[in-house]
Amino acid sequence: MAGGATSVWATARLVAAKDLRVERRSRVVVNQVLPFAALVMVLFAFALDADAVLERTAPGLVWLGTIFSLLIVVQRSFAIETADGALDALRVAGVSPPGIFLGKSFALAVQLFVLEVLLVLLAIVLYESELDAAGAVLLVTTLVPATTGLAFVGTLYGGLAAGTRGRETLLPLLLFPVVAPVLIGATRATEAALGAGGAATDEGWPWVGMLVIFAALFGVGGTLAFGPLVEE
Amino acid sequence: MNRNEGSAPVATTHTPSTASAPAMTSRPRGAGTGTTFTRWLGIVTLASMAAVALFGLVLSPEDVVQGESVRILYVHVGTVWVAYLAFVVTAVSSAAYLWRRTHSLTWDRIAGASAEIGVLFMAVTLLTGSLWGRLSWGTFWVWDARVTTTAFLFITYVGYLAVRGLGGSHEQRARRSAVVALLAVIEIPLVHFSVKLWRSVHQDASVAGRTTDVTLDGLMLFTLLLATVAFTLLYVWYVLHRQRVMTMEDALDDKGLDLALAERRREAATNGVSNGAPSATGEVTN
Description:
The complex is a heterodimer.
Chain A: H1 5-26, H2 28-48, H3 51-82, H4 86-92, H5 97-126, H6 133-161, H7 167-194, H8 205-230
Helix pairs in contact in A: 1-5, 2-3, 2-5, 3-5, 3-6, 3-7, 5-6, 5-8, 6-7, 6-8, 7-8
Chain B: H1 7-11, H2 16-20, H3 36-59, H4 70-99, H5 105-136, H6 145-164, H7 170-198, H8 218-275, H9 280-285
Helix pairs in contact in B: 3-8, 4-5, 4-7, 4-8, 5-6, 5-7, 5-8, 6-7
């Protein structure tokens, strides 16, 4: 059942609303993941010490912090599905896998976006990064495709690892190589936005293009692949 | 679950009698992983590897610029070609498994065998590459697009092999790993493209892409091509054997369960006379 395009979107909306409702009531991301991300930013400062280095490397650290947190958010996202066999129940109920994929990706993207905004603010406060108006436009435009891409990849590999033995250790091995292009692209674009290391704002836009391609490819790939991955 | 332990099983696939004979109790003679074809292939492969050693180490001259270190490249180029070939075969077999109307596990096993050997050869490529780099560039590692992509390819397929080792039924393993292999096809060009935008200092390919004026010495070029052919033969030989070993392992998995069930039933039948619950033990095993 649930074949038409409208039902896929309706399913996606329901799944996303459910995930965000779970988060609103449990506050795991707010109470645990956001503090973790902030902690990572402070630890980076301990490790790299000098102010000049921090200001120069701030964009990379923001995205490293994001990717480490992504791992936790993805595991959380699928922990609520595998607990009590919720994913099996969805499947048995005939809910379309593309709908589940898009819904979970959207919920994940919302949570990641909040996290990234926090990390950028922390970089501005802690690492003395500066953001002007043109930079802010570039930064927001970077965040959207980068977050979408990360959410797609996270949902895809989270779904693959869900319900298997040793998923906690397998997920980073699968996930980190795939998100490397996002780390590179988003870091370069953020460097341009923050003017880190004297980068001009214009230099950031080609990277945004790359991030859009990444998000589009994994959006399509994930929608197609999610069904075969979670079936059986 | 040590079927994916990496290179160790690959190296011993041509002596299957030690690997799988104890399990296959009623194996007829000659039902190992060797056939007449693979035996001849093995002989030709070994002979051509010996020829590569002879040409690469003795007969071919040293390079004007690189000196003796050029000899590393005969192995480096041969193995990197095989590794890429292996990953292409993995992707194609995975697609064949997913899209054919009849899901044949043979495709899955070819994909798995090919990936294992690809990872092995990729490791050799990275090792020889960094040794050569140390001699020629003065550093073991450079953050160049092609080098970085190769390293990512290696890690990606190590992850693929980890997915194969997750357990579950053979169909689950096949489907999961096939999807991961196809996702790698999306991932790798993206990694390459992004790293290339980031930086690039790798030397241009010396043979392919140059239409006029091949600057390689004739004997060196011959050695390079000989090495490529020899490593390709080695790859085919390994994949054939490894794939057959995997078939046996899968059969053993299935058969092992049946044998265990039969054994428990027999126990139940003999004990059942005394405790009066003949079928209970058999049900529990299920």
